[in-house]
Design brief:
The structure holds 2 protein chains of 2 kinds. By secondary structure, chain A is α+β, with helices and mostly antiparallel strands. Chain A is 53% helix and 18% strand. Chain A folds into 2 domains: 2-49 and 287-433, no CATH class; 55-281, no CATH class. Chain A has a 6-stranded mixed barrel with strand order 3-4-9-6-8-7. In chain A, α12 (286-324) packs parallel to α15 (398-425). The longest helix of chain A has 40 residues, at 15-54. Chain B has helices at residues 46-53, 76-86, 102-107, 119-132, 148-161, 178-195, 206-209, 235-250; strands at 2-15, 18-31, 35-39, 61-66, 69-70, 87-90, 166-170, 198-203, 214-219, 222-228, 231-232. The chains are: A alpha+beta, B alpha/beta. At the A-B interface, α1, α13 and α16 of A face α2 of B. The structure holds adenosine-5'-diphosphate and magnesium ion (MG). The site of adenosine-5'-diphosphate has 12 residues of chain B, from β1, β2 and α1. Magnesium ion is lined by residues 46-47, 170-171 of chain B.
């Protein structure tokens, strides 16, 4: 305890130097904490935003195969799937039934390709509740041929609400088809993922796809939260498997790109009737998850690299400190200070520096995160997918943070160890006669 | 009773390719409670000898005995403990710890190693020492706020904190003006009488040598005079040596 007090006093000798060293440690930990905080929220935000775009967390598709080997995505009768969902106990907040196609929009010589989802605006609340308009609005969807597109697409086609445009597509069975849409509303740029989607009335989309009015392609369950998605997904898969033919989820999981392997599973098979494909948002986002993991791993690498540099500074500074205080060390040794106590004095100084710096680093990181969270990037920010309602969010894992602080403390101690041992091993007689 | 014995002590310093023989075979003994001066011109070997008595340095050859302990047999840890428990140090340039106050500097040796005193007892003892060296009004001040004489008073009190049997002072007055130097020596002498602490101080100043009971005069690493109360003191060793040998044989 006394050594600790002396260490504290010693650090206050050269305040500027102490602040520089502590500041370097703080800076290192701050950067890493920011990355970790960002990575922690990154996946959650992407998942939540993606769930909104994809209108669900757990999905099922029906797939049929024709004699000629074509695959059709079509759910003709969803009673089986809904019964399975009930058995799995999925606490769906919304159930979405989506028909969609990839179509070519044409207007006055301009074309744009995008995915058009069919939505039943009369009964489905999920999408209408979430749509924000830059121009036009939901009113235009009363027109059977109404369409909602995003700003970049509207710009590309040079259209305004009220304009009528042509669409080229393939029916569910692969025939070429042509239709006509009337622009009802234009949404702000929703970023890299959203710009590809447009929304139209399901009845008209079904007509263009040449499928029945009660039929659709993807059934989605929107959960109240991201928790439990995997569990409900598994239960739903089992329940569907008990009732009908399904694509093997587990086999696909062994592939390097599981979701692609899963989506392509039917390529080399033939079957009669419907075969169901059950997947979750987590399956779709497996690669995004990997990005988050990479971010977290790289934060540790960055911590180590930054500290590699900082450690050199710490070692050099402690070496200088040792030479500055060489006579003092000789004096203390004469008076009866043991080698270990001299070493501990230096290590205590390093420890205080490390913990003080770490605390400051965490505090600054907290302040920066709070500051960044307050900035509203707007819903139309191209970063939309990683934001939460237009705001950056951060989530720190207590364990990771504690581990980083521990790493910082350990590395600081290691850096100070060599000079500390050198100081402890000084011959007192030599130290005493040294004139600086 | 002999408290320090040096027998045929030599010290050779390597200096580049040559060797400097700083102490060339020195023997003398010191009686407990005496006020001893190691006198001699600069370079005669005073510091080297005090360092060996102080157990901060080892002789190249010969024996140094402190109390009943032969220092030759001791490792660094034991030597440090011996310094802590038996010896006090006063330095030419004071060597106070700059970040500690007067009180804390004096207290410092008591915070090392095993704690023997209770907090209250310790405080009373330090207060007594502060008073004894006349710094009652300065206890909270840092060394940089003190004059040279005051700093050396702090150093004296610090040397006494652990109630050592022997206090070593290497040219304690060399950085002080002659008036202040005399006062410092008077203070050391007073404490020597009051507490029965053995003081060994080195000096090249003929004037302050006069205060000593026992004067060991050096030149070129050799003892040229060894007088205790005006009489030859080489006999001390025979007496002390036999006693030490007898006790060693008895044990
Ligand atoms: N570390 C050392 N290396 C080489 N020579 C030394 C060293 N210390 C002292 N000496 C030499 O030893 C002799 C005695 O030195 P010292 O004990 O310091 O004398 P004093 O204290 O009486 O001035 C001197 O000649 C000095 O130059
Ligand atoms: Mg000297």
């Amino acid at each position: 305890m006394e050594i600790f007090r002396l260490a504290l006093r010693n650090l206050s000798r050269q305040k500027k130097r102490t602040f520089l060293l502590g500041g370097a440690i703080a800076f290192g930990l701050m950067i890493v904490t920011l990355i970790n905080g960002f990575a922690g929220a990154f996946l959650t935000n992407i998942s939540e935003n993606f769930a909104n775009l994809a209108a669900g967390h757990i999905f099922a598709q029906g797939v049929e195969k024709s004699a000629s080997g074509r695959e059709y995505e079509l759910i003709r009768d969803d009673s089986l799937l809904l019964a399975a969902a009930k058995e799995a106990g999925i606490p769906a907040k919304y159930v979405t039934k989506v028909s969609s196609f990839d179509g070519n929009l044409v207007f006055a010589g301009h074309t744009a390709r995008l995915t058009i989802d069919g939505v039943d605006f009369a009964t489905e609340t999920f999408l209408p509740e979430r749509l924000v308009f830059k121009e036009g609005g939901l009113a235009g969807m009363k027109d059977r041929q109404g369409i909602i597109i995003s700003d970049p697409i509207a710009k590309r086609l040079d259209v305004r609400p009220g304009d009528r445009l042509l669409v080229q597509l393939k029916t569910y069975s692969g025939q070429n088809n042509v239709g006509e849409f009337a622009v009802a509303g234009i949404t702000p740029d929703p970023g890299i993922f959203g710009s590809m989607a447009g929304y139209a009335n399901k009845a008209y989309v079904n007509e263009l796809l040449n499928i029945g009015s009660g039929e659709y392609q993807t059934l989605g369950f929107y959960l109240p939260s991201l928790d439990g998605m995997d569990g409900y997904g598994d239960a739903f898969y089992k329940a569907v498997k008990a009732r009908a033919a399904v694509f093997d989820r587990d086999a696909a999981k062994k592939e390097t790109n599981p979701i692609r392997a899963f989506m392509n599973q039917g390529k080399n098979e033939t079957w009669a009737g419907v075969k169901y494909r059950v997947y979750t948002l987590n399956d779709l986002l497996a690669q995004v998850k990997q990005i988050a993991e990479v971010l977290k791993t790289s934060s540790l690498v960055i911590l180590l690299v930054l500290f590699g540099i900082i450690m050199v500074g710490i070692t050099n500074t402690f070496r200088i400190i040792m030479y500055e205080r060489i006579r003092e060390i000789g004096t203390m040794r004469s008076i009866g200070m043991q080698r270990a106590e001299v070493r501990n004095l230096f290590l205590s100084e390093a420890m205080i520096l490390a913990l003080g710096g770490a605390l400051a680093g965490l505090a600054v990181a907290g302040a920066v995160m709070a500051g960044l969270s307050m900035v509203n990037f707007g819903l139309s920010s191209p970063l939309f997918i990683i934001l939460k309602n237009g705001h950056m969010t951060f989530r720190l894992d207590a364990l990771t943070t504690a581990f980083d602080v521990l790493v910082v403390a350990a590395l600081t101690l290691v850096s100070a160890m060599l000079p500390a041992r050198k100081a402890a091993r000084l011959d007192p007689a030599v130290a005493l006669r040294t004139v600086k | 009773m002999v408290i320090v014995e040096l027998r045929d002590v030599r010290k050779v310093y390597p200096l580049g390719k040559v060797e400097v023989e700083a102490v060339k075979g020195v023997s003398f003994c010191i009686e407990k409670g005496d006020f001893i001066s190691i006198a001699g011109p600069s370079g005669s070997g005073k510091t080297t000898i005090l360092n060996m008595i102080g157990c901060v340095d080892r002789p190249t050859a010969g024996l140094v005995r402190i109390g009943d302990r032969q220092t030759k047999d001791l490792g660094d840890k034991e030597l440090t403990t011996l310094r802590h428990e038996t010896l006090g140090f006063i330095f030419q340039s004071f060597n106070l710890i700059p970040v500690l106050s007067v009180f804390e500097n004096i207290e410092f040796p008591l915070l090392l190693g095993k704690q023997r005193m209770h907090a209250k007892e310790k405080k009373e003892w330090i207060d007594y020492l502060v008073e004894e060296v006349g710094l009652s009004d300065w206890r909270r001040h840092k060394p940089t706020e003190l004059s040279g004489g005051q700093r050396q008073r702090v150093a004296i009190a610090r040397a006494l904190a652990g109630k050592p049997a022997i206090v070593l002072a290497d040219e304690p007055t060399a950085n002080l003006d002659s008036g202040t130097g005399e006062q410092i020596l008077e203070l050391m002498k007073k404490i020597n009488r009051e507490m029965q602490t053995t003081f060994i101080f080195s000096t090249h100043d003929a004037k302050i040598v006069e205060l000593a009971d026992h004067v060991i005069r050096l030149r070129d690493g050799l003892v040229i005079e060894n007088l205790r109360n005006g009489a030859d003191a080489s006999g001390l060793c025979a007496e002390g040596g036999t006693r030490a040998a007898a006790s060693a044989a008895g044990a």
